[in-house]
Amino acid sequence: MIEPPHLSVFVLPGVPQDVALIRCWDELERAGCTFSGDVVVTRSDSPFRSVTDIERDVISYRGAAALLVREHRVLAVGLRHARFGAVSLSVASTRDEDERHPLEITVYAGGLAFPVALRSRGQKGDARTRWRWAQSLLVAASLRTDAEYGAAGVEVAFPSSRALGGAVAQRVLRPSTWFVPASTDDRAADERVLAALPPSALSRGPAGALVRGPGADGEGGVSEDDVDRVLELLARRAERARRGSP
Predict the structure, then answer these.
(1) Region Disordered: what ranges (predicted)?
(2) Does residue 1 lie within any of the structural domains?
């Protein structure tokens, strides 16, 4: 059990869930985590919105990740980071039962849990370190899973594909930092959105763009209006994908 508040990294994978789990697990090990041996699984093959909707078992496992996901329907994997403590890689919730599930990487928020003005010097340093780690992991996990999009934040809710439109103008509990993969469908429209964002809050590469919200110190980053535009972009992409047309 990870103590709240939680710092979370989310991705909506473009590869099958078992493949995405293995790849995210590998990225977590590259980012300094070790497997704890604790795994949450289910015997049910029913669709669900939240893992709390189905029966679950906690098992101890000492084997390869690839073998684990072949033998079990995995809902969560426990890991540990030498500095940050307990880390969870889990299946996140969706709006509808028949949607593909995002994956969530969770760790205690540490220094990010405290109001900026009240943080000690040590908490400020811890907040910066955790936030850098989360942003780096967001990009790495998004790329490894061919994610449709990803996000990071403290105590936030990640919209599944069909919930993207509803997250526009909903300015509570939503992430402010997003990974937007490069798209070949409507480059001109995407470019108009990204070009309008503050350059200092945007890191771009051939595979996509990291759109950064306020930093660990609460300063800089994109505005809530900017996040609305990013969500509208992602919602349009999701709708095109559902229609099967560009």
Answers:
(1) 204-224
(2) no
Q: Does 61 reside within a domain?
A: yes
Domain that holds residue 28: 6-243
Residue 88 lies in a domain: yes
- DSSP-derived secondary structure for the chain: -PPSSEEEEEEE-SS-HHHHHHHHHHHHHHTTEEEEEEEEEES-----SSGGGS--EEEE--S-HHHHHHHSEEEEEEEEETTTEEEEEEEPP-SSTTSPPPEEEEEE-GGGGS-GGG--HHHHHHHHHHHHHHHHHHHHHHHHTT-SEEEEEES-----GGGHHHHTT--SS--SEEEEE--SS-HHHHHHHHHTS-GGGEEEETTEEEE--S-TTS-SS--HHHHHHHHHHHHHHHHHHHHT--
Q: What is the pLDDT of residues 181-226, one digit of tens each?
A: 998 677 888 889 999 999 999 999 999 999 999 999 999 999 999 9
Q: How many domains does the chain have?
A: 1
Q: What is the pLDDT of residues 134-190, one digit of tens each?
A: 999 999 999 999 999 999 999 999 999 999 999 998 888 999 999 999 986 778 888
pTM surpassing 0.85?
A: yes
